[in-house]
Amino acid sequence: MCGIVGYCGKKDAGNILLEGLKKLEYRGYDSAGISIIGESSIKTIKSVGKLNNLEENFALSSISGNIGIGHTRWATHGEANLQNAHPHLNSKMTISLVHNGIIENYLDLKKELIAEGYEFKSNTDTEVIVQLIDFYFKGNILNATLNAVKRLKGSYALGIISMDNPGELIAVKNNSPLLLGICDDGFMMSSEISSIVEHTNKIIYMDDLEIAQLNLNGKYKIFNYNLDEIEKEIKIMDLNTNSISKNGFDHYMLKEIFEQPHAVKNLLNKRTIDKRINLSDNFFSKEEIEKFSQIYIIACGTAFHAGEVAKFAIQKLTGKQVLCEIASEFNYNQKFVDEDALVIFISQSGETADTLMSIDEVKKIGAKTMAVVNVENSTMTREVDKVMYCYCGPEISVASTKAYTTQLANLYIVALDMALKLGKITQEELETYVDELYTIPEKMEASLKDLNVYKEIADEIKHEKSIYYTGRGMDFTSAKEGSLKLKETSYIHTEAFASGELKHGSMALMEEGTKVLTVLTQEHTLNKTASNLEELTSRGAYIYAITTYDNEVVSKNSKKIIRIADTMDIFAPMLSVVPSQLIAYYTSLAKGNDVDKPRNLAKAVTVE
Ligand code: F6R
Asked: 3-state SS of the chain: helix, strand, coil percent to 5?
């Protein structure tokens, strides 16, 4: 999704902005641009497509200056072209603005401005904001911005520069992430820490309805919308630039797949001490858990699949029913959550608009909220009662891998903690589960040893039009995650079916050579799923099995078997997903796709 960056300081802004934008590339974009305050005018360059185009245009220009803003745009309002690319300027070309978010009332505002004689060059909601600031401008860019943003409905993080106030950069936000970096030579602003971390570890997280004035003289002020100055905590972050490098791997996706054993181990070390669960004292107590009338899990995409696995685990370990819903569906349907419910949200980025919207909805009802999140200090972490971080480091590849397995590890810990507190398992039983969890990293490593099998499968399936994934119960959830991973990286149509549901329609799709990946890790469904393989092969399907078992029926019906290490059934999704991730990775490579940045997708989905 769109990313914004800004700089105001002693150095030349151009390269800092371009480098900052490169760090935001992975979020997904289709055009980019920068504006810099020059000697006598604002200089703006935009380009469609990859950032290299912008860099080339910048290299050919002689633009320099100490204050500037930059943007990567993921088209929402209007196609990806130069007119719609940010920054957007007012008609007099004296104010330039970059925007991340969506303005819902932009058409009304546009009509109002047109009636005042304003003309528009783009189809974007963003151009309306800059013209509105122009409308309110009486010599002070801070005041004009404030008056304009008070009229906006929707989400925004904005960076604004003005030729009439050439010594300042304005940053303001509502419902879109924005943070400031306090550097030795000045200030940075960005949608995320990755573009700031090279310059400073001193970070201010801006909250909604706050506006910052960053000055070239080294001073800054942050105000609320009543223009009362507010003190903000400067956080010292310990992120280093290595954690966002490829570290010798060809792609972030592969690096992140390989980081999983360490990431899971690191998480377990934080969540357990001497085989006891170590959640902070302020985690849910036995009394609170007993009082939960319902447990809901809400998330999107891969995070939703982690939620579906957790549903099985919590139900099995606590006997409590869990309802799992996709955030975008939950938001617009009838709600049965009550104030005694616990609602667990899961998100890598902590910025997913649909999930944030669900949190708002649930908070209105008064239910207890908890979030499993990777990005520290992200918006979600500030909205819920309790937060569990994944601590797996920045996940750069758009396709989520290590966030998924560390989300799972966290959620297993939550399930075990609840079960122990409710008296559903003894401390001894808990230790058996924890011991087994500690074996997972090594068992994951085993799936990372021989990569040839994944490359061979990738080669066999790369020209397919459709590929299917099947499984039952937890394996169905793993099938859905495998299917999503393959679809988003390979652009091949994939779909996951519950094995038992095949006969109710989808079996009609099977013909000679149809490729089917199946997951078999659950003892109680093994024989049933194995029989489904017979039915599939009878119709000509070509089966690849990801399994913990050495089963005769499975062997007879599968062209290739990927054996994963044995574990307790409830933990198997952490292992069965690794081959699926690698098959997706190598299929994307075999097709020549941009594996870390699949087309049309964004890493942080900050619009609904
Ligand atoms: C798939 C993927 C997406 C995300 C989804 C939610 O590989 O990455 O499906 O899982 O967009 O994002 P977060 O977890 O940031 O809320």
From this structure: 40, 25, 35
